[in-house]
Design goal:
The complex is a heterotrimer of chains A (144), B (330) and C (341). With 144 residues, chain A is α/β, with parallel strands linked by helices. Chain A has four helices and four strands. Chain A has helices at residues 19-28, 50-58, 79-96, 114-131, and strands spanning 10-15, 37-42, 63-68, 104-108. A four-stranded parallel β-sheet of chain A has the order 2-1-3-4, with helices on both faces. Chain B has three domains: 6-113 and 161-172, no CATH class; 116-153, no CATH class; 186-326, no CATH class. The radius of gyration of chain B is 21 Å and the shape is globular. The chains are: A alpha/beta (144), B alpha/beta (330), C alpha+beta (341).
């Protein structure tokens, strides 16, 4: 994904049970999504602490997406429900601080939704690419 | 001017010390000037008589001290609580941070505290400060005595007082008030109405002043972790340094997030900030969002309530909807 | 002594900043702070800045060096750049004295070259305090607010600024401003100084004495029972140490940037639980010990190692900023006033 020669770095936190399997399926089906999407596997979407998201930005991510099982389908029954509340509040706060709201996203992707995974990543990467480099949550020390 | 007088507080405290209900009193101790009071323990009527103070500078919220204080002895400690302090008191009880049976709490009505900083803005060199009804008489070193309007000296948190009602006490001195219909979210809404660029500029400017003294964290009655993540060298985020503007943002976002659903909006963080960063605006944003997304919730209003951040319902809104609804420019 | 009419103050600032970067106290909504002067900025009338002037020589954070790692080789990159000459205008007597306290730490062998570099390039224009406030107690430590020191000492009246060079460095800068200033006698300044000294004598803390403290008093105060009560309500935040002009403790940290390492130094605070943490743990386990460390250092340890010089300058910042209003004045009154065992 490229806009004016700029390729954004995307960090995707994927839950082990649904979304990571969804990413696998996307691969098996040879669906393409940007190579600059770096997947970090987590046991459950609710393992993602708000600090992980900020740290991803600090280390150079231009967009951070969090994928988990669909609400109701959590492997641990209710993990993703907590994720939903937590991220609702966190994203609203980031917006409040003037950080572009399109840089963060939560998407529910099941193990059967390889196509949705690829489409989501393409769409998200395109959106982030149009925003340009992450400047508002950057740490200059981490810039090359 | 406070409804209940210092003498009444001392008399009741002395009585409770005398009859053995409590063996120490947590109160405000006189300092060098009229405004620099320090939280202290008093053990006798004599100590109370000479050093105990109750005036507009008794802003310190004692609830957090109870965590340490109740661990020291099985005997009860007497504590004076203003209405806003009682919310923190309940919240700490909800989190099982101290034993209720080791505390004797006396609720005292509060007419709003005074901000020494605001007095210093209008008076250079303060010899004495005396409250007189709606006025505050400030004797200065060079400009004689100034008469200031009391309401102009209220700190931000008291201007937008959320409640004059005590939600916890063993006994109440004076009369109880009501939960107020405050305008505490006005400033948050004002920020929400700005463009993202303006908001970013606003916070960049405010947070860039942060010196990472951690006073906001250390005074916060909701921050009672034994070991804070920002003090842990192994956390990867431990950092005293304001080395990059990212550090300040990270610290303040995470600090505010860690007290989501537990912050009672007591305003201590903004009171103690040596750089006058309006930290309460971060906490209030979360409180406002919670109210809006998950229904009204006031942390500390009752003991044992379950905060929305540790709860859920199947029909909760999605994060993207939250962002759209939270900001009013959508 | 030179004199400058106050309506030429902007011209003076412009002239100084033509050859030096000029920093001076400017009012902001969060109090006065030192800012780089540019046309349109006016000198604050506040007595002092919220943060001290030590930042200019000992900044809160500073990049010491970088490491670039490639395979098994490590390249060390010196990140230092030569400091530019700068003038620090309007420094109060207390802060001027604080530089002496810092010098004894950073310029003692082994010399801290980062600090020295900035010190060599800085010229201090001090400013006498005509209206000291209730929290001032510089006199306790032998500092005279009427004779503020620095490279150039300034006195300001309603219509003029008086400048007196104290060092060669100051004289050189002052000489370059000759076209703006005129020679004058010391009469007006002497008169102002008499007023200042009279005001200083009437301050609420004028009688605060440091006599009970100083070199060699460690045994006398270390185990004093009063520390318990004094430190009881301390929150353990670092406000006092970070606004203090003489606190000089720092930590050195390596920051992993993902593609190398940045080594930087940042202010540390003896109030923090992980201060001077070693492999065996922290040497000071409770807040009482941390609290004691700070005040013993100011009043006893530092004087013991530095010919009796106290490392408090009585600026009153901690008095104004401590969230619970515990401060060195209360400590000195409580400990100094006790019956000596």
């Amino acid at each position: 994904m490229q806009v004016n020669g700029y390729k954004p770095l995307i960090v995707a936190f994927c839950c082990n049970w649904c979304s990571y399997a969804g990413a696998d399926l996307a691969g098996n089906n040879r669906l393409s999504y940007p190579a600059d999407v770096k997947i970090i596997r987590v046991p459950c979407s609710c393992r993602v602490n708000p600090m992980f998201i900020l740290r991803a930005f600090q280390r150079g991510a231009d967009g951070v997406i969090l994928c988990g099982c669909h609400p109701g389908d959590c492997h641990y029954t209710s993990g993703n429900y907590y994720t939903r509340r937590r991220m609702a509040l966190l994203f609203s706060m980031l917006d409040y601080l003037g950080i572009e709201r399109e840089r963060t996203r939560v998407e529910w992707v099941s193990a059967a939704e390889g196509a949705k995974f690829a489409a989501t990543m393409n769409e998200f990467a395109e959106k982030v690419a149009s925003l340009g480099e992450n400047k508002r949550l950057e740490d200059l020390r981490c810039k090359k | 001017m406070q409804e209940v007088k210092r003498e009444a507080l001392i008399a009741r405290a002395a009585e409770l010390l005398e009859n053995g209900t409590v063996d120490r009193v947590l109160g405000w101790k006189a300092g060098e000037f009229d405004y620099d009071l320090t939280p202290a323990l008093f053990h006798s009527a004599g100590e109370l008589e000479s050093d105990f103070v109750w005036n507009g500078f008794c802003g310190a919220n004692f609830s957090k001290y109870l965590v340490k204080e109740t661990g020291k002895s099985e005997n009860k400690v007497l504590v004076f609580l203003k209405p806003c302090d009682t919310y923190s008191f309940n919240q700490l009880l909800t989190e099982h941070r101290f034993s209720r049976d080791r505390v004797y709490a006396i609720g005292v009505p509060c007419e709003g505290m005074l901000d020494a900083g605001r007095i210093k803005d209008s008076a250079e060199g303060i010899a004495s400060v005396r409250e007189d009804g709606d006025h505050v008489l400030v004797e200065t070193l060079y400009d004689g005595t100034l008469t200031l309007d009391r309401t102009s000296l209220l700190p931000d948190r008291c201007r937008n007082c959320k409640s004059k009602k005590h939600v916890a006490y063993d006994e109440l001195l004076g009369s109880d008030g009501e939960v107020l219909d405050s305008h505490r979210f006005d400033e948050v809404e004002q920020l929400e109405r700005m463009t993202p660029d303006e908001r970013f500029a606003f916070w960049q400017n405010e947070l860039s002043r942060c010196i990472r003294c951690n006073a906001c964290r250390d005074v916060c009655p909701a921050c009672t972790c034994e070991k804070c993540v920002f003090d842990n060298p192994n956390s990867g985020v431990e950092n005293k340094a304001a080395a990059n503007s990212f550090e300040e943002k990270m610290f303040h976002i995470i600090r505010a997030f860690h007290v989501v659903g537990r912050c009672t909006d007591c305003g201590e963080c903004s009171r103690v900030c040596p750089q006058h960063i309006p930290l309460h605006l971060l906490n209030r944003k979360f409180i406002k969002d919670i109210d809006q997304f998950y229904g009204d919730y006031q942390a500390g209003a009752e003991v044992g309530s379950r905060a929305p951040i540790v709860n859920y319902s199947a029909g909760d809104l999605e994060p993207y909807e939250a962002v759209e609804r939270g900001g009013s420019d959508a | 002594m030179r004199k400058l009419s106050l309506d030429k103050l902007d011209a003076l600032f412009a002239a100084i900043s033509a050859t030096n970067t000029l920093y001076l106290p400017v009012d902001t909504k969060a109090g006065a702070r030192f800012e780089r002067w540019e046309s349109g900025k006016t000198l604050s009338t506040a007595l002092n800045t919220v943060r001290s002037a030590k930042d200019f020589f000992f900044p809160q954070t500073e990049n010491l060096m970088d490491f670039k790692v490639e395979g098994k080789s490590i390249e060390i990159i010196d990140t230092r750049t030569e400091s530019e000459d700068f003038v620090l205008f309007g420094v109060r007597a207390c802060d001027v004295k604080s530089f002496e306290v810092l010098d004894r730490v950073f310029l003692a062998d082994p010399v801290d070259t980062y600090y020295k570099n900035r010190r060599d390039h800085g010229v201090i224009f001090s400013m006498a305090c005509t209206r000291p406030v209730e929290s001032c107690f510089c006199g306790t430590f032998g500092i005279d607010a009427a004779n503020p020191g620095g490279d150039v000492a300034c006195h300001m009246t309603d219509d003029a600024l008086y400048l007196q060079a104290n060092t060669d460095k100051g004289q050189r800068v002052l000489d370059s401003l000759d076209s703006l200033t005129e020679a004058c006698t010391t009469e007006v300044v002497d008169e102002q100084n008499a007023l200042i000294r009279e005001r200083l004598a009437r301050l609420p803390l004028a009688d605060l004495s440091a006599e009970a403290f100083g070199s060699g008093k460690t045994a006398e105060y270390f185990d004093a029972p009063e520390w318990k009560q004094l430190s009881e309500s301390c929150l353990g935040c670092g406000t006092c140490t970070f606004v203090c002009p003489t606190c000089q403790c720092y930590d050195i940290k390596d920051f992993n940037t993902g593609h190398g390492v940045k080594r930087f130094r940042c202010w540390d605070s003896c109030m923090y639980s992980e201060f001077t943490k070693m492999s065996a743990g922290q040497p000071r386990l409770t807040q009482l010990e941390r609290f004691r460390q700070r005040f013993m250092h100011k009043l006893v340890y530092y004087p013991t190692n530095n010919d009796g010089l106290f490392s408090c300058v009585g600026c009153g910042r901690c008095v104004a900023k401590c969230p619970i209003h515990m401060n060195i004045v209360k400590v000195m009154k409580t400990l100094g006033g006790r019956e000596h065992a």
